[in-house]
Amino acid sequence: MEDKELLETIENYLTGAMSSQERTEFEALRKNTPEIDQMVVEHKLFLDHMQSYAIRRSFAKLTSQTFNKLMAAGEWMTDDTISTKTKVIQLWNRYKRVTAIAASVAGFIALTTTVLVMSLSPSLNGNQLLQLSKAIEVIKKNQQVQGHLINEVKSKVPENAKMLSGGSGFLIDTKGFIITNTHVLKGNGAIVINNLGQELHANIIYSDINSDLALLKIDDEDFKAPKNIPFVIRKKMTDLGEEIFTLGYPRNDNDIVYGKGYLSAQTGYNGDSNSYQIQISANPGYSGAPLFNDKGEIIGIINTRQKQAEGVAFAVKSNKIFDLIESVNETESKKVDKIKLPKSNTANLNNRKDQISNLKNYIYSIRSYN
Q1: What is the CATH code for 128-370?
Q2: Domain residues of the chain, as ranges?
């Protein structure tokens, strides 16, 4: 397929001009061809910018027409026989509706332009990525939704603590060690919540800003250590186009969510060799969630998504977990027991439903507080 024909096909796809069969065939091609997937993302950005430009042009035309109308009516010229105050009132009464519309459009354009400049200029906002931790407002809303549960079972968050952030995490050692993202832990204290809604105290053991990975350890008498962990952590590179799935907590603390997609690039944002680019719907709360392949092996940890491209997210490669654990075992050996990563994979099941049922018991919602 030539470049011109490919661009026309992508535009038809984005504008909804394809039939359902054509759309299904193109999505299959997009899934298996990372280069085309990237072209779709870039062309969508281009179309969005062109639409914004069209709005600005329409506003310029509207203001020009308004000015010409004022000039033609002679209302813009100075008249010494009419006081300035009277002329202003006359102009306002006659053109206040047009002025209001123009002001509204101007405000919208100014806001749109500001957002575009901030999102497209690295010097203003640093990058185009959105961290996927939960904001405090979301945590409070979740607490209100689950109010009856909190009233029945006293929360383990200290009474005067200030909630700061939240996300997801997963067990890597039966002794209660949990991996999450560093940016999820904006406070100095944390609790973790299992898929049954049970809160457990946890200590922040280690945090590495460079890899955006952190380690927690459950320290709670109510924690029932599992006999084993059913998945392994993959150390080798994952292939392009490989199907992936995740389990995390972008919604309520005891409402685990399943998402699926595929690996679209072996490097992350701006060619980051420590991350993968993945095609998946990722909402705030997914930070720290494990990324599994079909065999039930962990291949990454979701941490960010691209602001301007729908469905484009990024995950820290799972081999960075090995580096983190090596550092912890060396520097924190006097404080914590040596961490032993799981070595046997019992999550390699043919039925995805059974996989999820097995894996969700080892994935936690995380709240951080001061």
Answers
A1: 2.40.10.120
A2: 33-125, 128-370
What's the DSSP call for residue 219?
-
Enter the tokens of residue 94.
């006659």
3-state secondary structure of 148: helix
117-146 tens-digit pLDDT: 344 433 334 467 888 777 655 455 555 444
Cα–chain center distance at 150: 28
Contact 369, 164 (CB under 8 A): yes
Token digits of residue 328: 């912890």
Q: Under 8 Å CB-to-CB from 230, ≥6 apart: which residues?
A: 296, 342, 345, 346, 347, 358, 359, 362
* Matching residue, tokens 């507080």: 369
pTM comes to 0.66
From residue 100, give the alpha-carbon distance in Å to each of 37, 58, 95. 43, 16, 9
Query: Collapsing DSSP states into helix, strand and coil, what is residue 299?
Result: strand
pLDDT tens digits, residue range 89-105? Answer: 554 455 555 545 545 55
Which contiguous run of DSSP H or E holds residue 185?
Answer: none
Mean pLDDT, residues 111-115 taken together: 47
CA distance 60 to 39: 31
